[in-house]
Request: fold
Amino acid sequence: MNNKALICGLTAALLVTGACSSTSTAPVAKTTPATTAAPAVTPAASHATAPTAADAAAAAQDFTLVNTTGVEIDKVFISPHSSDDWEEDILGQDTLPNGEKVDIKFHRAEKAPLWDLRIEDKQGHSIEWENLNLLEISKLTIDYKDGKATAHAE
Reply:
């Protein structure tokens, strides 16, 4: 009986410690179905948006990624442009089906303005975008049509 109580107590302490000590600045993602039609797709461009009161609590780089590529995205990588390595797949075991979106959230302490984005499908085919100024992008719609990848930033 004492062993069970000890194991339960240690497990609870480890869970609380792990949850409270997380200091990662890597972005996290939450997949949700897209609720509006995707806008016309053009090559990636940046358009500044006025911050709202709700944005004050969020990291300045937070954005929504909308998949209109026609295929299910298996992996999404986002790394600071100054980095030579891709960070972890922010979808984890999830995927981003065509027509759905994912909210990508950054740690509030994150300061890097320019980021690179890489997406991969299940077959390992990948597309990359570089120098995305996430301080000026709140929504990024990606598309693949006639052999050409495009991104429309809002």
Q: What stands out?
A: Residues 8-24, 34-56 have pLDDT under 50 and may be disordered. The first strand starts at residue 28 and ends at 33. The chain has one domain: 24-153.
